[in-house]
Amino acid sequence: MTPREAFYEAIRDEPTDDTPRLVFADWLDDQGEEDRAEFIRLQCQRARMSDPLCAEAMAVRAKAEQLLQRHWQEWVVPLARLLGRYSPVWWQAGFHPYALEDFDRGFITYLSIQTPCWLDCWQEIQRLTPLSELQLSRAGGLGQQLADCPGLAGLTSLQFGDYWVAPLGAADLTHLAGCKYLNRLRALHLYRNNAGDEGVEALARSAWLAGLTSLHLGENGLSARAAQALATAQGFRPVRLWLGNNFLGDEGAEALIASALLERTERLMLGYCGLSIRTARALADARHLHALRVLDLFGNRLTAAGVRLLDQAPWRNRVRILTRLE
Questions:
Q1: Is residue 275 within 8 Å of residue 297, measured between CB atoms?
Q2: Model confidence at 163: pLDDT above 80
Q3: Which end of the chain, N or C, is less surrounded by CB atoms within 10 Å?
Q4: Who's near 181: CB < 8 A, 6+ residues apart?
Q5: 71 exposure class (CB count in 10 Å sphere: 0-12, 13-18, 19+)
Q6: What's the chain's average pLDDT?
Q7: What phi, psi does 208 have (nearest 5°)?
Q8: Which pTM was predicted?
Q9: pLDDT of residue 52
């Protein structure tokens, strides 16, 4: 491992901490890469500013933009060429001011690529940038290969965003649930995949699920079985939980509400889940929804009486409820 790769690993290990980035910037000064070091420091400085549109923040942004434009060929083109082997990327067209928004405090830390590309070139990607957030498409049937991929180590966010071509299936999610590299994962987004009850049951048994703060399982063909599995998952206390567009029914929703699962949940999305006044009553009676701030019940059959029950809940004054009678 080269010194640069070691720094990238340290940055991946502490994605919210500026210290590894600034230590790397000091090292870059010693290597004669003062502009790269200054770019990192400028972006870290701007990220700490409370108003990104104030005059000082805009001046810092302008300096960073000038440096990025001057060094586009060195800092961006190698990664663009690598990804361009598989499909065109807009970075290949050259510098654009919006490109600055793809850098998180000095680095490209998020990529959206096809799964076969990732499996083929993740090592080269990690040599070029300290990636922490990854969106994959066309992952269907590749769950085992992904689970065995060391490149997933250090990721804090993993999203599967291909809704129509080769979405992630139950068997794929079962393989990922057993992955030993996802211990740092904090967000898993699976909107419009085919996880199914079996996949979620495997996820509920995974060693790394308890580390998630955000889980998106909207439109995955789930029933009450999946909700019950999540409700009994050891240590899982998400801050954001999306389960909309699955027919969980009152049975599934009541299992969630009766468990300790929702103790830390701020956003709970249960739109179009086949819910009735039974769920409204269970929510209204709940005394442990201390963190809840947004509750999506849109598209359910709560009835006017159910809405009145929610309006009388002890937590109602601090929660925004999204609902429409069907």
A1: yes
A2: no
A3: N
A4: 147, 149, 150, 151, 152, 153
A5: middle
A6: 94
A7: -105, -5
A8: 0.93
A9: 86
